[in-house]
Amino acid sequence: MTAAETPDETTVALGSTPVDAAVETIHREMTAFARRARASAGRMHPQLSLVSYTLLGHLEERDGRRATDLAAHYALDKSTVSRQVSALQRAGLIERRVDPEDHRVQVLHLTESGRHILGQVTESRRAAFRERLAGWPEEDLLRFAAYLERYNAWPGGSPDEERERPALRDTYR
User: Cβ(116)–Cβ(40) under 8 Å?
Assistant: First the structure.
């Protein structure tokens, strides 16, 4: 084990097991990761919060979605998604279109401007990840990616996630 792989001695409480210490370390590191992701989102594009970036990415990936689908997928309150969608629409990054299969439903799609900004932010994000992971061996990167997918594939996730996972897992095996 390298120094980076050994648990920080300050995280091990008296009487705790190595598993308890590992869970505490995972929690602490995932919290730091989330904080860093939120903080860096504003630096990548001042108009695009992490939530907005995530929603735009999902809309691009799925070629449009209803706001209720976004709320369900990300386990967000409908009012939260509604505010985000309104802001993205005012910024000209998304538009509403009538669903051709059900004219009562509106589907959110990226505008050309939305695709452009999403592309810029995605490139910046990828460059930041590549820089941070530059010294990692390929085997570690593949293992890390597989562990993240395994963690996020927990059965408590959304039905959409469960359908998406098998194809993604095959990428790293």
Answer: no
The 10s digit of each residue's pLDDT in 38-65 is 777 667 777 678 888 889 999 999 999 9
C-alpha 159: how far from chain center: 16
Residue 119 tokens read as 């592309």
The interaxial angle of helices 18-44 and 50-62, nearest 10 deg, is 90
Measured between alpha carbons, how far is 155 from 135 in angstroms, rounded to an integer?
33
Q: What distance in Å separates the CA atoms of residue 144 and residue 29, rounded to the nearest whole number? A: 14
In b/e form, how buried is each residue of 6-43, taking b as 16+ CB within 10 angstroms? eeeeebbeeeeeeeebeebeeeeeeeeeeeeeeeebee
**Cα–Cα distance for residue pair 167/173, rounded to 1 Å:** 11
Lowest mean pLDDT among 1-5, 16-20, 79-83: 1-5
In three-state secondary structure terms, 158 is: coil
Whether residue 84 has pLDDT greater than 50: yes
Structural contact between residues 61 and 32, judged by C-beta atoms closer than 8 angstroms: no
In contact, 118 and 57? CB cutoff 8 Å:
yes
Predicted TM-score (pTM) of the model is 0.70
CA distances from 30 to 22, 45, 53, 78, 123 (A): 12, 23, 19, 26, 23
